[in-house]
Amino acid sequence: MAGGIAMLPSGGAHDAPTEGSRTYAIVVCVFASLGGIFFGYDQGVTGGVLVMDSFLNDFCVDYDGNSYTNCTAASADLPDNWSTFTTLYNVLYYIGCIFGAYLGGYIADKYGRRATIFSAAYNTALSSSHPHVFATFHAEATT
């Protein structure tokens, strides 16, 4: 079994500078990294929500007989039904990410990169405006 290093001659046509600028490449990389940054931010928000008093009062207290003391106990002493709920709460986030990745890949293959980016931006705008629209209509209906 022979081994070695392949040497490519320098000074060929491939050494010519490519089109574009370094600044453009940096800007594109920064915007591309925002997806990972926001993914981590979402995880941080999710972890913070699980220990908020309002979340515990709405979803844990009186859920299958749980009390506020049970819901705020140490991790090892949490009720089994609440541990199962919080586990599913976290796991479903990742399952949604998996389905979203497959759906994004399908849209990109079928319709192209631009349609994928547009549909993702549209869905994000629609889903983030939904709570505001609901709160507006709810406030009008109750007054």
UniProtKB/TrEMBL annotation:
SUPFAM superfamilies for the chain: MFS general substrate transporter
UniProt record similarity statement: Belongs to the major facilitator superfamily. Sugar transporter (TC 2.A.1.1) family.
Residues that span the membrane, as ranges: 23-41, 91-108
Protein name per the record: Major facilitator superfamily (MFS) profile domain-containing protein
Gene source species: Saprolegnia diclina (strain VS20)
InterPro entries: MFS_dom (IPR020846), MFS_sugar_transport-like (IPR005828), MFS_Sugar_Transporters (IPR050360), MFS_trans_sf (IPR036259), Sugar_transporter_CS (IPR005829)
Family matches, as Pfam families: Sugar_tr
GO cellular component: membrane
Key words, A-Z: Membrane, Transmembrane, Transmembrane helix
